[in-house]
Each structure stands twice: as structure tokens, then as C-alpha cells.
Design brief:
44% of the residues lie in helices and 19% in strands. The chain has one domain: Vaccinia Virus protein VP39 (Rossmann fold, 3-Layer(aba) Sandwich), CATH 3.40.50. β1, α6 and β2 form a beta-alpha-beta unit. The protein has a seven-stranded mixed β-sheet. It binds S-adenosylmethionine. S-adenosylmethionine binds next to α4 and α8.
């Protein structure tokens, strides 16, 4: 029975187990990225994403990593935080609930190329004493903005969840270079290109997710990361950065970069 299940998992669409473990990343378009924000399928997928994040333990992984990344910094908490590819902000809100007792008065910028955060989200952050600023722009435009432009800005911490895997290596290099130039700590939680990741994604129908979400989850694992793949793309030279990259939880891959003089 177990063998039959495994064979079915391997034969359905998406990267095979052997390809995943032996080969490099495989990028394929994700359905959610191509749907307008108001499309009912997109709305359903974003709701599914909240469940997927719960199963992946993303909030806990990121909250712990953020606390650690900032632990050796000056006495005060971070003031300016930016999330790239933040979606509707629901994950950021769960993280803020974990951190707001110690980190007061944070200015949080949520960048996404779609306008997804409503007034209610701003109010929810305000209850925690945090200020929400949505930034609707393509992240590569943000990365390419000259440093003197308002868009470029400067942040204590930049974070991402389920985002970097959307990009090819040359765009990732450009994006990570911009991140390194504009913050003191960077935390990324991404799909891990691994057998548990592949298995987990293919078992998602058990959670009742849509076929769009299932598709996107499977291709995300194929585009995910392993080993030191993100560290190798982090800009060399310039200020000293301390890099950590490792598996986190059953399905995730965590990358943390902290400036040598803050951690
Ligand atoms: C898989 S979702 C993750 C959302 C959120 N981080 C979470 O974990 O719930 C990826 C998000 O990245 C956004 N996105 C994709 N490509 C982008 C780009 N080039 N610039 C800005 N946002 C982008 C999408 O609109 C989507 O909201």
C-alpha cells in the first residue's frame, strides 16, 4: 500500500523524487501569480495559503529566526521592518502577534505587486501598536530603484516567506544585493527542495485545498532551495555578513543573514 501511494505521488505532475534530490531548481509559473487579486480562484488560493503556512510552521520558524537575528543588536527592538512578497499580510500579522510584546512601535512595510492588504489589516496592526504601510510594486523595480529614491529606503530587518523561489538565479542575485544594501538583518523561509517537501505538497488535498493551490505547492517545491544555495547568491565583498542556512521544520528552508556589526 505504501509503495502504491509513493508510486502515485511520483507519477503525478511536477518534479519527480529522483530529479528533486539529484538536480537543480526547476521554475514553472505559479497559477496564483497570474490571477487578478479579485478572482475567486485567487481569493481561495490565498485562503489556502494561510493553511499551508500553518502546516509548514512558517509563523513559528520566522518569529524565532527574527528574534535570534535581532538578539545581539542594540538594546531597542527593530523599528523598520519590510516584508517582500507579503501577500495579504495575514502571516505578517501572526508574526507581529508573537513579537509585539517586546518589539514596540514597529513601522512595517508590506511589499507586493498586488494590492492585497485592506483597511482591516491596518487596524489589526494598529491594535498591536505597529504601523502598516503597504507598498505596491514589483520587487525587481524596488531592487533596481536608485538608493537615493524614497522607494529604496532603509530597514532594520527584511523578511520573506514563500517568495524567493519565484525567481531565477540572476534576478535572485540582484534582489539579494538590494536587500543586503538596505537592511541589517534578512530572514527568508522558503520551500525546501526535498522528499518530505514533495510528499507534503502532494498530500495537500487532504487539507481540502484547491487544485490551483496543489499545483502551486508542487511547483514551489521544485523551485525551492537546499544546501547553501542562497548563501552562494548572497553578495560577496562589502560589509561582513554572518550567514546561516539550514532545514527548518519538516518542509522549509531557512536562510538568515545578519551584519557582522549587529550580530
Ligand atoms: C506564494 S505567495 C506568498 C505570500 C506570503 N508571503 C505568505 O506566505 O502568505 C507569493 C506572493 O508574492 C507576490 N509576488 C510574486 N512575484 C512578485 C514580484 N515580482 N514582485 C512583488 N510581489 C510578487 C505574489 O503577489 C504573492 O502575494
Amino acid at each position: 500500500m505504501a509503495r502504491n501511494v509513493w508510486r502515485r505521488l511520483q507519477l503525478s505532475r511536477g518534479p519527480s523524487a529522483s530529479r528533486l534530490t539529484a538536480g537543480g531548481r526547476t521554475l514553472s509559473p505559479e497559477i496564483l501569480d497570474e490571477l487578478p487579486a479579485t478572482d475567486p480562484r485567487a481569493i481561495r488560493s490565498r485562503r489556502d495559503l494561510q493553511r499551508v503556512n500553518r502546516v509548514m510552521g512558517s509563523c513559528g520558524i520566522l518569529s524565532r529566526a527574527l528574534r535570534r537575528a535581532w538578539a545581539a543588536a542594540p538594546q531597542h527592538g527593530p523599528v523598520r521592518i519590510l516584508e517582500l512578497g507579503a501577500g495579504d499580510g495575514s502571516l505578517a500579522l501572526r508574526i507581529a502577534k508573537q513579537l509585539a510584546t517586546r518589539w514596540h512601535g514597529v513601522e512595517l512595510t508590506l511589499l507586493d505587486r498586488q494590492a492585497l492588504t485592506g483597511e482591516a489589516m491596518g487596524t489589526a496592526f494598529a491594535h498591536l501598536g505597529w504601523t502598516l504601510r503597504p507598498l505596491i510594486v514589483d520587487v525587481l523595480e524596488w531592487a533596481r530603484a536608485p538608493t537615493q529614491q524614497h522607494l529604496a529606503g532603509r530597514w532594520d530587518i527584511v523578511l520573506v516567506n514563500l517568495f524567493l523561489h519565484h525567481f531565477e538565479e540572476h534576478d535572485l542575485r540582484e534582489l539579494l544585493a538590494a536587500v543586503a544594501a538596505r537592511c541589517d538583518a534578512f530572514v527568508a523561509c522558503e520551500p525546501r527542495r526535498s522528499l518530505p517537501g514533495l510528499l507534503g505538497s502532494r498530500l495537500l488535498p487532504a487539507l481540502g485545498v484547491s487544485t490551483d493551490t496543489l499545483h502551486d505547492a508542487i511547483v514551489s517545491v521544485g523551485a525551492g532551495f537546499r544546501d547553501a544555495e542562497l548563501s552562494r547568491l548572497w553578495p560577496a565583498g562589502g560589509p561582513h555578513w554572518k550567514l546561516q542556512e539550514r532545514p527548518a521544520g519538516p518542509f522549509s528552508h531557512l536562510f538568515v543573514a545578519t551584519r557582522g556589526d549587529t550580530a
